[in-house]
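With this grant's support, we have settled on a layout for protein records. A representative record follows, to show the layout.
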Amino acid sequence: MPSAGKLAAALLSGHMAAGAGQAAHAADRRAWFESLRMPGSNASCCGLGDCHRTDADWRDGRWWAVVNENWQPVPESTVLASPVSIDGAAYVCTGPPEWIVGGFGMTPPIYCFVPPIWGM
C-alpha cells in the first residue's frame, strides 16, 4: 500500500497534468481560430473573440446560422472548406453585435463560417 505522501504526490501530479492539458487545449483552439482565413484571400476571419460556436442548418441548398440570436442565410462566399471544425460544431465569425452603419442597427456581416461536421 502506498504511503499517504506518495498518494498525495500522485494525485497532485495528475491534477497538474490535467491543468496542463487544458492549457494546451486552449492554445490549440486559439491557434485554430487564428488560422481561419476569408475564402479567396489571406485576410484573417478576425480573432478568437469574433468567432463563436453557433447553431447551423442546411436549407434550400445553403447554410443558415444563428447570428445575434437570429437565423440568417450564410453567404456562400464566406463558407470555409478548410480547416474543418475543430470539434465538429459550426462556427461563425462576425462583426460586433452592435453593428451600426449610418446610425441604423444592422445585422453584422459574416466574415467566415465553418460548417458543422454532422454525424460526429
